[in-house]
Design brief:
about 450 residues; alpha/beta; Purple Acid Phosphatase, chain A, domain 2; six-stranded mixed sheet
């Protein structure tokens, strides 16, 4: 007997591609009937798309229903770009099982979602188990806990092992953790891998475990074939199907999202917003101030590439603001010594990243641009640094209001071990919207 498992991951609301998969999967349902399972491995939701933003992800769940999804897990975009209550109710209308071993409310003993589910196909019991990436400080800021994914996987694998004939892992942990999973838990037959946006043309085999991954943005849909003799798995292989080879399907989700985001933020006299990459515009300077004010910090720091599209001025709608700032980025308050603050100021003013193309980290633009800082200055003739009108003291502790994306990477090593307070769940456009309402 042959069972097909189709899998998607990291769609990131690339709905033009995904609607092709919907048609493809419905055709496969007619072809294979009960010998097929379709699963999604998280980050289907991405609030950079107007339809996802307008529906807060619930529109994505409708699309998964239409694609006859059987099982899904969450990625970091479902987990940390929505409020806790929004995530709790995201799947209220789902026609599929949502599983995750390691997402739980702070202080809870059990996972919020089911840790695993079992699907029976022609008498063969297939166990699906899942885990999501440990972005612990971000989840803690939303009163969730995701730490110790491997321990939770081990716990529920032991519970699942005697109940099923095959074990399939839905992993939103990333490629390197998935390789470790395969080496540590050879009882897993198949790992469907995601998060790091990698793909395997024909799967990879580690320690007898087959790993399959389908890239990002709906470039591919994965197909795994499991061969059984009775209830015994005797063969497994993987391949990818390119979205470009599937028949195009028209959809109006972008326009629908635009219409749903027609609410007015400023009626008729909003200033234009320039997309100026290499110097501070009026808007970039205001945003640096707002981040400082929102985080109640001494200094604000942002970069000009955050303006993804310009705004001509006049009536500012939620859609127009979304186009300007489509990013899944939150503010963070970081404690630094005066010496570290000086170092950050100096590094920011070198603008070493101004021409870089940035992917991920919540950023949904393209070119990074120049840094813009608020309430900090340098008097070159005196070689003195000031916060406001006060000379910076090297040994004193100050606070910097900035973007969480800077704490992921290599830009400011000073941030690595500093105390950080992530301001969840407001995204940049939420901060601006709330600020403008108070004017």
């Amino acid at each position: 007997m042959e069972v097909k498992i189709y899998h998607t991951n990291d769609i990131h609301s690339a709905l033009d591609n995904y609607v092709k998969f919907t048609s493809f999967l419905n055709d496969k349902r007619h072809q294979y009937r009960d010998n097929m399972v379709y699963v999604d491995i998280g980050d289907h939701v991405d609030r950079s798309h107007p339809y996802t933003e307008a529906t807060l992800g619930k529109g994505n769940i409708e699309l998964l229903n239409e694609a006859t999804c059987d099982v899904a897990t969450i990625g970091n975009n479902e987990g940390i770009t929505l409020t806790k209550d929004q995530l709790k109710h995201l799947y209220d209308d789902a026609n599929f099982d949502v599983i995750c071993t390691n997402l739980r409310e702070v202080g809870a003993d059990n996972p919020f979602f089911k840790p695993y589910t079992i699907k029976e196909v022609k008498g063969v019991k297939i166990g699906f188990i899942a885990a999501t990436v440990e972005f612990t400080p971000f989840y803690l800021a939303l009163d969730w806990e995701v730490a110790d994914a491997f321990s939770w996987v081990e716990k529920y694998l032991a519970e699942l092992r005697g109940k099923v004939d095959v074990i399939v892992m839905l992993s939103h942990l990333g490629m390197y953790d998935d390789e470790n999973l395969a080496n540590r838990f050879p009882e897993i037959d198949l790992i469907l891998s995601s998060h790091t946006h990698h793909h395997f043309d024909y799967g990879e085999r580690i320690n007898g475990v087959l790993l399959a991954a389908a890239g990002r943005y709906g470039e591919y849909i994965g197909e795994v074939t499991l061969n059984f003799q009775g209830k015994k798995l005797i063969g497994k292989n993987a391949k990818l199907i390119e979205a470009d080879f599937l028949a195009p399907k028209e959809n109006n989700y972008y326009q629908l999202g635009k219409e749903m985001l027609s609410n007015t933020v400023i009626k008729s006299d909003a200033y234009p917003i320039e997309r100026r990459l290499y110097s501070a515009s009026r808007f970039a300077s205001l945003l640096a101030y707002m981040i400082r004010d929102f985080t109640d910090s001494d200094v604000g720091l942002i970069h000009t590439g955050l303006v993804a599209s310009p705004f001509e001025g006049g009536e500012l709608t939620e859609y127009a603001l979304h186009k300007v700032l489509p990013h899944a980025i939150n503010a963070v308050k970081i404690e630094l010594t005066g010496r570290e603050m000086k170092e950050v100021f100096t590094e920011a003013n070198r603008h070493e990243y101004k021409d870089e193309i940035v992917r991920g980290l919540g950023f949904r633009g393209d070119i990074f641009g120049a840094f813009v800082m608020d309430n900090i200055s340098y008097v070159q003739s005196e070689r003195e640094y000031y916060i406001g009108n006060e000379l910076i003291d090297d040994g004193r502790t100050y606070s910097l209001g900035t973007l969480d994306m800077y704490t992921f990477g290599r830009i400011f090593p000073q941030f690595r071990y500093s105390k950080k307070d992530y301001m969840m769940p407001d995204l940049l456009r939420d901060i601006i919207k709330n600020y403008l309402k108070c004017l």
